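Q: I'm a student working through a structural biology exercise. My instructor gave each of us a protein and asked us to get a predicted structure, then write a short paragraph describing it. Mine is Putative gluconeogenesis factor. I'm not confident about reading structure output yet, so if you can add a plain explanation after the tokens, that would really help. Here is the sequence I was given:
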Amino acid sequence: MSRSNRIVRVIKGRRPKVVVIGGGTGLPVILKSLHLQNADITAIVTVADDGGSSGIIRDYINVVPPGDIRNVLVSLSDMSPAYLDIFQYRFESQDSFFAGHAIGNLIIAALTEMDHNIFDAVQKLSQMMQVDGHVFPVANDPLTLNAEFLDGTVVAGETEISGQRKQIKRVWVTDTNDQAKEPEAVPQVIAAIQDADVIVLGPGSLFTSILPNLMVRNLSEALLQCSAEVIYICNIMTQKGETEHFSDADHVAVINQHLGAKRVNTVLVNSEPVPANYLDYQKYDEYLLPVGHDFAGLRSQCDRVISNDFLSLHDRGVFHDGDKVAREILNRAFQSH
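A: Happy to help. First, here is the predicted structure for Putative gluconeogenesis factor. I'll explain a few features afterward.
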């Protein structure tokens, strides 16, 4: 659907301002649907990823990991699908030098080197890719995710944390290059939060995609102080080494605990059962079981629970239906005004 053919809904003569905070593979699904439903989107993306192509590039070039940023740029781009396919192309395993790398990751890394910071690089690439909206890395410097487990042990690094298969007590972020430096969100991130109609958390890995953003101190302060409604899109499946045995209420409780206040206003919960034996656990090896429901617990953690069939099944995977989720987000934006 072209931009000119979208249904335009406005708040006080303008498009609804939606800030989405997160990372991982679930985020672009929601962003693409919000994009097609004409929201004015700002995506705030984690820079604490240390796995896959992003992690390898980060180790060799010392730049912010580009993978999540790449996927978000594509989800908001009005560029020709043929060009986007090139940007997303990942070299095959037999290409030993480039094996596993996406072309977009290499372009982001190159622009970051040229501009000497990830924020300016992403803004330049956003113009080149005809991005409708804003894509903001949460910080200009690479961040390291740290976790303390219930047994008192401490581990650094997203991959190491989830690999422990232990219950996480809390997480925090540190500057990868300077442990003494306080991680800080760029001013544009703070301004977007202050100006938002609604702020969306997720979907995505709770401890490794959502909380790394919220643990940047000036971002969490802005989130606590702003007047926008905060919506959390609860995950459909639990994840190994992160949310094993978690209910939907447990997810929300962890967010509120890390923020130090009950800041989540609305939670979107999928009510449609996941068919038995549908999910390909080899392909989606991070998933475990459907998230259990605890509606009494949810009501104690937030103001509003919206339960609906948000399930989308394809490619033997379990996903959110982006269009249904986007409509609920925009409904909340209009109702809050």
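A: Here are two points you could use in your paragraph. The first strand starts at residue 17 and ends at 22. The radius of gyration is 19 Å. It's a good idea to check both against the output above yourself.
Q: Great, thank you!
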